[in-house]
Amino acid sequence: MSFILWICIIGFLVQPGKSQDEDLMDILLPYSSFARGPHFSHRHVRDCQPVKYGNVTHETTLPGAKNDSVPLIETKYFTTPNEISQGHVTFVQDPARHVSVLEPGKEGGCTAENDGNYTRATVAKSGERKKCLVAVNAGFFNTTTGDCYGNVVSDGKLAKDGKGIQNSHFGVKKNGELYFGYVTEEEVLSGDFDQLVAGVLWLVRNGEIYVNESEKAECADTQETGTLNTFINVLSARAAVGVDAMGRLVIAHVDGRTRSRGMTLHDFAQLLIDFGVVNAINLDGGGSMTYVSNGTVINYPSDYCSRDSKLYRCPRRVSTIVCVHDGGNTPVETTDAPNEATQTQSGMALLIVIYLVSCLINGL
Ligand SMILES: *[C@@H]1O[C@H](CO)[C@@H](O)[C@H](O)[C@H]1NC(C)=O
Ligand SMILES: *[C@@H]1O[C@H](CO)[C@@H](O)[C@H](O)[C@H]1NC(C)=O
Ligand SMILES: *[C@@H]1O[C@H](CO)[C@@H](O)[C@H](O)[C@H]1NC(C)=O
Ligand SMILES: *[C@@H]1O[C@H](CO)[C@@H](O)[C@H](O)[C@H]1NC(C)=O
Ligand SMILES: *[C@@H]1O[C@H](CO)[C@@H](O)[C@H](O)[C@H]1NC(C)=O
Ligand SMILES: *[C@@H]1O[C@H](CO)[C@@H](O)[C@H](O)[C@H]1NC(C)=O
Q1: Pocket of ligand 1 (CB under 6 A)
Q2: Which domain holds residue 138?
Q3: Is 213 within 8 Å of 168 (Cβ atoms)?
Q4: Are 319 and 104 in contact (CB under 8 A)?
Q5: Model pTM?
Q6: Residue 284 belongs to a domain
Q7: 200-214: pLDDT as tens digits
Q8: Which residue has the least CA distance to atom 11 on ligand 6?
Q9: Which of 17, 21, 62, 322 suits 56 as a labelling partner, its CA being 20 to 30 A distant?
Q10: How far is the CA of 50 from the centre of ligand 5 (A)?
C-alpha cells in the first residue's frame, strides 16, 4: 500500500507543474524561465564562438542576381528519412522586395499592451493584411501573455527592442543584405534593418551545422543547460529561415508533435544543408508551427482544438510571422500613389477643356 503511495508521490514530482494547457498545447520551450532570453552581453557570444570567426558574430549575404530559369517563389514538399513526418521548403528570389516580418494580428501587435495581455493571432490571420503567398510562424513568445521575445523590425519600423538579447536573429538590411546571427543593441537601434526577428539557436553557419556552437553561445545560465539541450534533441515540429548558395531566401518546416515525431535540431540542420542552405536560424516550433500558403494552412499543426475532443488539431495563435508576398514593400506603394493622383488630375483637366470647348461651340 505504502509502496503504491510512494510511486504516486514520485510520479507527481517527476511531472512538475503540468498544467491543463500542456494537455491541449504542444509546448516546446528552449528555456524554463525565459523572461527575456539569455541575460548576458554580446561579448559573451564573441568570446565563446570558434576562433576562426574572430569577433564577427553574424553572416551577411547579398541576394543573388535574379535567375529567370527558376521560379521567383517556389514551394516543394518532402518526407523525413524515417517516412514519419512531412514538411515544406520555399525558395524566394529577390527577398529584400518580397519578404517581411509581421507583428501578430496588426501593426503594433508586439507593443500594444493591454494590462499585460499582448496580441496573438494565427499565422493566416497575421498574413492577411500583406496577402502573404507563404507565411510561417517566426518569433518565440511568452505562452501566457503573448509578449514577443527578441528584437522585431517590421517593414523598417522597430516594433520591439529586445534590449540586447543574445539569441540568433534573421534580418534584412536596408541595403538588401540578408543577416543571420547575433546583433548588438547598437545595430538594432541604428535603423539599418528593414526586417528583423529573433529565433533561438543558429542551425547552419557558412554551410556547416552550428547547433553545438550556438547552444554554447545562447546558454550562459547553467540552470538552462538541460532545458536547452532537451529543446535541441527532442523530436518536434521545427521551422527555420535561411539563405541558399544562390542567395535565395529559404523557409523550411517539418511537422511533428514534441517527443513523438518530427526532428531534432541536428537532423533538421543537416536537412537544410541538403536543401543547399548556407546560413539559417531556428524559429519557434512545436504547436506554434504553422505553414500557410496564400491564406490556407498547408501543414498539420499539433495543438488540440479543445479539451473535450482529441479528434482535431488547430493552428495556435502565435506571435510574429515571416511573410513572403508579391513584392511591393512600402517604397513601391508610395510611388504608386502619386501616379494615380497625377492621372486623376490630368483626367480632370481634360474634362474641363472639353467642357470649355463645348461651351464655346454652343455659344457660337
Ligand atoms: C510570462 O509572463 C508572465 C507575466 O509577466 C511571467 O510571470 C512569466 O514568468 C512569463 N513566462 C515565462 C516562461 O517567462
Ligand atoms: C574585431 O577585430 C578586428 C580585427 O581584429 C578589429 O579591428 C575590430 O576593432 C574588432 N571589433 C570589435 C568590435 O572588437
Ligand atoms: C539559374 O538556375 C539554373 C537552374 O537551377 C542553374 O542551372 C543556373 O546555374 C542558375 N544560374 C545562375 C546564374 O545562378
Ligand atoms: C488578460 O487575459 C486574461 C486571461 O485570458 C483575461 O482574464 C483578462 O481579462 C485579460 N485582461 C484584459 C485587460 O484584457
Ligand atoms: C555536437 O555535440 C554532441 C554532444 O556533445 C556530439 O556528439 C556531436 O558530435 C557534436 N556535433 C558536431 C557536429 O560537432
Ligand atoms: C491566392 O488567392 C487569391 C484569392 O483566393 C487568388 O486570386 C490568387 O490567384 C492566389 N494566388 C496564388 C499564387 O495562388
Answers
A1: 33-35, 142, 144-145
A2: 42-325
A3: no
A4: yes
A5: 0.84
A6: yes
A7: 999 999 999 999 999
A8: 294
A9: 322
A10: 14
